[in-house]
User: Fold this.
Amino acid sequence: MGEELPEPLDVIAVGAHPDDVEIAVGGTLASLVRQGYRVGIVDLTDGEPTPASPGPEVRLAEAAEAARILGVQVRETLELPNRRLFDSFESRVELAKVFRRYRPKIVMGIADKTPMASPDHWQAMQITDAAIFYSRLTKWDDQFDGLPVHTIRKQLWFPLGFSSLKALDMPGAFVSDISETLEAKMESVRAYQTQFPASKERIFRMVEGFAKTLGGTAGFVAGELFLPATPLGVTDLVQTLCPDR
Assistant:
């Protein structure tokens, strides 16, 4: 293998478009960075074209600014097609290459369909699920540019829709405390000026209100919802349920 591998990441969050990750889990990513972890974002597409954006270079500049606000160390945008994103062998391999290159412990991805929003979100979920599996497969070096196999230890899903709180009823659902990083989350979403102009101020109220509602269910000022792909183990029941603050 000729490629020199970068420093590993602890966590990678995957979205279909720039702004997906910020809306869903931007506060958690900012919290992780403040706790000393190395965090990355992967956007499967550049999100273009969109009605109010003059072109991909502007959307990518907005994404870079949002990443700076959150403090994440790495952001990569794959060259998969917006509006025509499909779960295919090629898209799975492209994302798995990123996982093999950055060797994350945890991967976060979109949880489900988003009715009346982009169908790319559902495709992104399937691509992410498959790429996590592909990342650890041996005897397939020719498909992955010789990048070493890597086993991702935990997978989490995050809901991207705000129409209901039904995901709270799913087994294992938990809320991440973003009380200290809600402001950073909101600032990162506001970085997408082409997507959320002043006429869409209600979006910010919705995102903030949803975070505060989720946080309130767990006793926090604000929170973000996650669904684990496998059961989470507990070694200290008291500290897990009643952490010292």
About this structure: The chain has a mean pLDDT of 94. The radius of gyration is 18 Å.
